[in-house]
Design brief:
Chain A contains seven helices and four strands. Chain A has helices spanning 3-16, 19-28, 45-59, 63-81, 92-97, 99-110, 140-154, and strands at 118-125, 128-134, 158-164, 171-178. Chain A is globular and about 50 Å long. Chain B is an alpha+beta fold. A four-stranded mixed beta sheet of chain B has the order 2-4-5-8. Classes of the chains: A alpha+beta, B alpha+beta.
Chain lengths: 179, 332
């Protein structure tokens, strides 16, 4: 997993909880990296699982909720740093439809060896979008947080139905309908 | 004991993480810099290889061009030499035929001598054209600047055709407006162009009329001579030179018909067949005319024009005078 995800996660912990909380969860986990993350580095995704577990334990918030919240935080950071990717796109369905062909292409330019999740996109009509998420990192909750924040960002109401196709969050189908 | 936010141990651990993160970032930066350097070196090597390929290909093309130019020069030189070599004995044949024609010969022999003479002249004209072509290719063709009387030149050219083709199927007419008495230009080339135009007009007119017209107007830098050759022949299209297959075969049949017609008595064409207009035009099957193609209700013929423009430069005092009598220069 790319270091930028860890850096952003700790940013969220510091912002939403406290810098001490960030220190504490790092100290609580036996991390191979020692918690010394740099954006351009690459680290085991197990470190993320450990950090989220430690945060959940300390805050009493279920891990899936924390990961969804991180997804929403990550979307805002993404928008702040790469606003040009939103140019000319007027609604969330149009943006999400381009995730593989445009967004992931741009991400690979910055991080050539990034292991990104795969999305199968189906747009049967302008008001509906079907996204099939697949990832060995089992971050379906992170995807949901990103999707929900994207919808909130554009403002147009869109209903999201989530269907877990396995019990680990590695395959999830999202059905989006403009309401 | 619980650590406070400013506990030295917490701050030290945070500082250590930051230091390690910085070191890791520096290592990655060095790694990426090295990758970039190597990629840049590879690109430079590729660019150099491409430039070398371009240089080599350019040199090959230049060499090929030089060889091609050399071949063209050799061909032109050969043609020029051969043309001279052929003209010498041919002139002897023509000269001998002319001398023979002065002798008292039986009519049948007179005609045979005349055939030798005419065909010799035709062959000589062909060889001269080849020589001109080789001169043009070799860049050695010079346009002369000499003083000549345009009226005399035009009339003389038409007279030579009358002499060659009379009696014949096509009537030659000359209509000249008053022209400057003397002009400067290449007399030989103008005559050559006119002869080609008139020759083609006669060749491609099964019957009717070929007319030479000329006038001149004054421009800021001298007189400009306009010459038009009009005929009532089969006409032409811009694509006629690109014809192939059936279309070319049809054209050839028409030319052969013209040749066959040449042994039949000539037919007169009414003067009103030529209608003047502002634009010259020619179409296949519609003759060549100085004006808008006009349908002749009696013969269904149309006409259009070949135009020749010759810059006229006033030469010496009186060079731009008009001829005294317009009728003198416009017989026909």
């Amino acid at each position: 997993m790319k270091g930028v995800v860890f850096v952003e996660f700790l940013e969220m912990v510091e912002a939403e909880f406290s810098p001490e909380m960030a220190d504490d969860i790092i100290d609580a986990c036996d991390l191979p990296s020692g918690g010394a993350y740099t954006s351009v580095g690459t680290y085991s995704h197990r470190e993320m699982v450990a950090l989220v577990g430690a945060l959940s334990e300390r805050t009493g918030t279920p891990a899936p909720d924390l990961i969804r919240a991180f997804g929403e935080f990550l979307f805002e950071r993404f928008h702040a740093h790469h606003g040009e990717l939103f140019d000319g796109i007027g609604n969330s369905l149009d943006f999400l439809e381009r995730i593989e062909d445009v967004i992931h292409v741009q991400v690979r330019k910055l991080y050539p060896n990034a292991e990104l999740p795969r999305f199968e996109i189906d747009r049967p009509d302008p008001d509906h979008l079907r996204m099939l998420y697949r990832s060995d990192r089992h971050m379906g909750d992170l995807a949901e947080g990103l999707i929900r924040r994207c919808i909130a960002h554009y403002g147009t109401p869109v209903a999201v139905e989530r269907h877990d196709l396995d019990d680990k969050g590695g395959q999830v189908r999202f059905e989006l309908s403009r309401t | 004991m619980t650590e406070t936010p400013s506990d030295p141990g917490r701050l030290l651990r945070r500082a250590e993480r930051e230091r390690r993160a910085r070191k890791e970032a520096e290592r990655l930066l060095e790694e990426k810099s090295l990758e970039l350097y190597e990629a840049n070196q590879a690109l430079q090597r590729q660019a150099a290889a491409l430039e070398e390929q371009v240089r080599a290909r350019t040199a090959e093309l230049n060499a090929a061009l030089e060889r091609a130019e050399e071949a063209v020069r050799a061909k032109s030189d050969f043609l020029a030499v051969m043309s001279h070599e052929i003209r010498t004995p041919l002139n002897a044949v023509i000269g001998m035929a002319e001398l023979l024609s002065l002798e008292s010969l039986a009519p049948e022999h007179q005609e045979q001598v005349s055939l030798i003479h005419d065909n010799g002249r035709n062959l000589l004209a062909l060889i001269n054209d080849i020589l001109d072509f080789s001169k043009i290719e070799a860049g050695k063709l010079q346009i002369e600047q000499e003083l000549f009387d345009p009226t005399e030149l035009l009339q003389g050219t038409v007279r030579s055709f009358e002499a060659q083709h009379a009696p014949q199927r096509v009537r030659l007419r000359t209509q000249l407006a008053p022209l400057p008495k003397w002009v400067i230009g290449d007399r030989l080339r103008l005559r050559q162009v006119l002869a080609n135009l008139i020759g083609n007009a006669v060749k491609f007119s099964p019957h009717g009329e070929v007319r030479l017209e000329a006038d001149a107007d004054e421009t800021a830098d001298g007189w400009r001579l306009h010459v038009r050759v009009a005929d009532s022949g089969i006409g032409m299209t811009r694509v006629v030179l690109d014809l192939s297959g059936e279309a070319r075969a049809r054209l050839l049949r028409r030319v052969l018909n013209v040749a066959i017609d040449s042994i039949t008595p000539p037919k007169r064409v009414p003067a009103n067949r030529f209608k003047k207009g502002r634009h010259g035009a020619s179409r296949r099957g519609c003759g060549s005319s100085p004006g808008t193609p006009a349908r002749d209700p009696s013969s269904n013929a149309r006409v259009a024009a070949h135009r020749v423009h010759q810059r006229v430069i006033p030469a010496r005092a009186g060079a731009s005078r008009w001829t005294e009598n317009a009728a003198d220069s416009a017989p026909g």
